[in-house]
Specification:
The structure holds two protein chains of two kinds. Chain A is mainly alpha-helical. Chain A has four helices and no strands. Chain A is flat. The N and C termini of chain A lie far apart (47 Å). Helix content of chain B is 76%, strand content 0%. Chain B is mainly α. The chains are: A mainly alpha, B mainly alpha. Chains A and B meet through helix 1, helix 2, helix 3 and helix 4 of A and helix 2, helix 3, helix 4, helix 5 and helix 6 of B.
Chain lengths: 115, 242
């Protein structure tokens, strides 16, 4: 019995601490979106809030980077994001080019300055 | 990108969605990101199967990174749940903006359950870009196909990263985790066609950086609601003036 619990424990943790706290926002969105049409003001506002929140996530991942990314110094991470964005604007607004240039800058900077 | 439709059947729309996922730039981004998350899960001592299940259930890169690192470092359960939940707030306005675009005449409420769960940044960005080119009655199938393609990619890459972890130099592992913010930034910028979207993006970056750096509680919530509402007000004022 205890062995079974020990084996299932990580999955219970996944549901309680990962799935439910995250999924609640999707379900709330489903409830709120009921009966709203796509041109309504609340949907336009929701799009603005979603875009700004996503931008906030980007900022947070750069400033407080997770895991191995933290070993690359902050100035390198910021420079890489800026270079990637400039390349995206310069080359036909290509997402691929933006990501590729950002990654190349990060690897080069990380190679030279990583602690 | 040309229009992906018109599809003659639901199955054709679903397959069209899978194909659009596998040819999207997010295919590479998700493959790279989840290789990084797989390596992270390995380093923190979580199982490969556990990681695959977390991809199916949580289906949000930043939340999974938080979950894996927090569990691996032995953070308090309530702290983990709160951190995951705060990172998930962005999904709420995404679902609200997406579902009305998916819904058609004959859509039953339960048809929306799967797209709701599938909603994540990559799927949302690509849906908002591609769905307008697809006949309304095929949108849900297309969207489910695309999401299945993205999720399958992420799960496969998670396994790959998990088993490659020992071979992965730290600099490379860091570069994989950098894919998320870098690709979110340029793809959101590409989708920002109206002034409101552009203002929301810039305000979110600025306010997000300031609030995160000053360790404000609920920083993402304030960034989204504050920055987004300000961008919306600017859009309304300009419309009224026009």
């Amino acid at each position: 019995m205890t062995a079974v619990i020990a084996e299932l424990w990580p999955y219970l943790v996944l549901v309680l601490l990962g799935y439910l706290p995250n999924e609640i926002w999707r379900v709330l969105g489903l409830v709120l979106a009921r009966g709203i049409n796509e041109d309504s003001e609340i949907v336009i506002w929701a799009r603005a809030v979603a875009t700004a929140t996503l931008a906030g996530v980007i900022a947070k991942l750069i400033v407080f980077s997770p895991g191995a990314l933290l070993s690359i110094p902050l100035p390198v991470r910021v420079t890489a994001v800026v270079c990637g964005f400039i390349a995206f604007l310069a080359v036909k607004r290509s997402v691929f080019i933006g990501v590729a240039v950002g990654e190349a800058t990060l690897l080069l900077g990380g190679f030279l300055f990583a602690h | 990108m040309p229009a992906a439709g018109p599809f003659n059947s639901t199955a054709a729309a679903f397959l069209g969605g899978v194909k659009s996922a596998l040819t999207s730039v997010f295919f590479l981004v998700l493959a790279g990101t989840y290789t990084g998350i797989g390596a992270l899960a390995h380093d923190f001592g979580l199982g490969a199967l556990w990681l695959a299940l977390s991809t199916v259930l949580v289906w949000a890169g930043p939340a999974q990174v938080i979950l894996v690192s927090a569990l691996g470092t032995g953070a308090a359960p309530i702290e983990v749940a709160i951190a995951v939940s705060l990172s998930g707030i962005r999904l709420f306005p995404m679902v609200v903006a997406l579902l009305p675009t998916l819904r058609g005449q004959g859509t039953r409420p339960r048809d929306l359950l799967l797209p709701t769960h599938f909603t994540s940044a990559s799927m949302w960005v690509e849906s908002m870009r591609l769905l307008p080119t697809i006949p309304r009655e095929r949108r849900i199938a297309f969207c489910n196909g695309m999401s299945a393609g993205f999720m399958g990619t992420a799960m496969s890459a998670g396994f790959l990263g998990y088993y490659l972890a020992a071979e992965l130099p730290p600099l490379f592992a860091g570069a994989l985790l950098f894919l998320t913010p870098m690709s979110f930034l340029v793809s959101t910028a590409r989708n920002a066609r109206t002034l409101m979207d552009k203002v929301a993006l810039v305000l979110g970056l600025v306010v997000g950086t300031v609030l995160t750096a000053s360790h404000i509680q609920l920083d993402l919530l304030w960034t989204g609601v504050g920055g987004g509402t300000l961008a919306y007000i600017i859009h309304r004022v300009r419309e009224a003036a026009a």
